[in-house]
Beta-xylanase (Periconia digitata), 321 residues
Amino acid sequence: DGLNTRAKNNGKLYFGTAVDSSGQSDSNYMNILSNSDDFGQITPANAMKWDTVERSRNSFNFGPGDAVANIAARNGQFLRCHALVWHSQLPSWVGSSGFNNATLIQVMKNHITQTVTHWKGKCGHWDVVNEALNEDGSYRSSPFYNVIGEAFLPIAFAAAAAADPDVKLYYNDYNIETPGAKASGAQRIVRLIKSYGVKIDGVGQQAHLIVGQSPSVATWTSNINAFTSLGVDVAITELDIRTKTPASSSAVAQQAIDYANSVKGCLSNTRCVGITIWDFTDKYSWIPSVFPGEGSALPWDSNLQKKQQVYNGILSGWGSG
Ligand code: G3I
């Protein structure tokens, strides 16, 4: 059995991967991606972000996102859609056009309504708001927070729910895999949205982790429980576990354990619905360009060869099921 088959055998919705545009013209890459034994779900790494979808005001480009939606449809893969409201990869017109509270709400709602409507029935999940928090749990400065205040969160979720009542709506962030100020901040966001009478279905724990510094199974478990006890699902949405390159054999052995622990954490709670790795191959990983000298974070290497030890680590996390 492959990664996705094993996840499904354990009651999860999927095991999946992000896909970026560079991989889509690489036939070896596409062959591995399209094997639904390993990947039952995909997320566009960039194609549905604001700077692609609405680079200039009210002019929409759904082509790159459609390409990913078509791959998912062709392969029968669950589509996680990412990300509607985010301070990064946000075209400058959104932050610099002198919008006030009323007009920025209008701009944000229009973006959400057009985008969610376009992929209605295709997206299983939407990351509605991405990375709204600082490490101390306070709100991050962004055009949305600075102009609208924290109400931008419930307003965004309400607009998404109105455009597609069936898609599951997620808040997504990193460094919320362990208990602490930022995880508490994300829990505050869940309560805030619910306090407005607005629907939030889940929280995405991105899980951009570091070999040897990844959460234990017990930490994963208690932290996931802290979210699901608020009445939302959890998804592990962008898992990768980086190390210094080239990876030493001891780092690879530890990485296999760290991957297994992440799987076991999700397995411990039925409301953890699935796991997505942030691309499956080092060939297209975002890590080396952001963290020079680090990488080797994924279960396929930069030649698209499977790293059997890491792959087996993930499988072993699922246990015998
Ligand atoms: O599209 C341009 C291309 O025209 C140009 O030639 C090229 C030169 O560098 O850059 C291309 O844009 C890059 C884009 O990825 C598409 O590949 C950007 O420079 C680069 O910054 C961008 O990086 C993405 C990053 O988000 C930006 O924040 C990564 O691919 C993507 O994997 C990463 O994903 C994020 C999640 O959305 C949210 N959580 C963190 C995660 C990792 O940073």
Summary: The longest strand covers residues 233-244.
